[in-house]
Amino acid sequence: MERGRFKLDYEGKLPQIDSNTLINSLLHITAAIQEINAELNKESNIKTTLQIKINAFSPGSFLVDLELFREISKDLLPTVAFVGSHIDINTMIKVLIEFIKLKLFLRGKKPEKIDRSGNEVTITGPDGNTTVVNIRTFNQYAGNLIVNEEVTKNFETLRDDPAIDGFKLTDKKHKPLVGVDKKDFSSLTSRNELLEEKIKTLPVSRADLYILKVVFEEGRKWEFYYEGNKISATMGDKAFAKTINSGEKFAKGDALVCDLEIEQVFNADVNTFVNKSYRVLKVLDHTPRPEQTSLLPPS
């Protein structure tokens, strides 16, 4: 069994951390590393199972110590020498680190130039600067929607928590491997323009949305029910923001008629586009939920 280890360092004046921030960030980072492992399995033609465990926290610390355990499937052990080149577990960690660095370098923009040479890719950014990454990292960045989405959601989670000032991945001795300051969180949530051909937007006129959760903080997502499905949507209607600030009341169960934009991504497994995110372009009407009446007869 192979073992690998790295740490997540949530920076700030943090005697505590919001449970949703920590849980969601861990979910997105571990989902990204699982997807990287799945892609590397395809490359090597070796099926492995990956377990990710959290070592005990130090008292008063929010340095999350992740340990990875990877094992080749037992049915492949007799023939593993014939099925492909082995890719060790630390390669996954290196890909994740390089992925975040590349995302920080490009900030969602398309490279001006891409030069492949052997196992390395030299990328020229829009500002003329260059960086070099492993071909595996570039393939994940340029073609893997799941890894892109999970890393983006991690930084959306951290961006929306005012207590978080920075985020680092470190090695087991706490040596920094990659670090991101608070000011850069928003740029790491930008759409990856290299994936544009796999992403499209679908406009929907006069969509009926039923409020599940109201979030008045700018940039945060409201929660709705739309066509029987629970969704989260950003509010892009500035006039509606003024309505909120003027004191109009909104509550769970209220109905909004909206012009809606749905971002869809192409899912190769089922050969179709599937809904990824939602944005309210304009609120056309607001109907408060009906007052509940008692079913008991008057006494």
Structural class: alpha+beta
Order of helices and strands: EHEEHEEEHHEEEEEHEE
- Give average pLDDT, whole number: 86
Number of helical regions: 5
Q: What is the strand arrangement across the widest sheet?
A: 2-3-1-7-8
Specify Rg, calculated over alpha carbons: 23 Å
Major sheet characteristics? 5 strands, antiparallel
The figure for the number of domains is: 2
Unreliable spans: 77-84
Helix content: 25-40%
Q: How much of the sequence is in beta strands?
A: 35-45%
Say how many strands there are: 13
User: What general form does the structure show?
Assistant: globular
- Tell me the distance between the termini: 73 Å
Structural summary, described in words:
This protein has 299 residues and is α+β, with helices and mostly antiparallel strands. The chain contains five helices and 13 strands. A hairpin with a 2-residue loop joins β10 and β11. It folds into two domains: 189 residues, no CATH class; 90 residues, OB fold (Dihydrolipoamide Acetyltransferase, E2P) (Beta Barrel), CATH 2.40.50. α1 crosses α2. Strands 2-3-1-7-8 form a five-stranded antiparallel beta sheet, with helices on one face. About 3% of the residues have low confidence.
List descriptors.
5-stranded antiparallel β-sheet; single chain; 5-stranded mixed β-barrel; 299 residues; 25% helix; OB fold (Dihydrolipoamide Acetyltransferase, E2P); 2 domains; alpha+beta; 5 helices
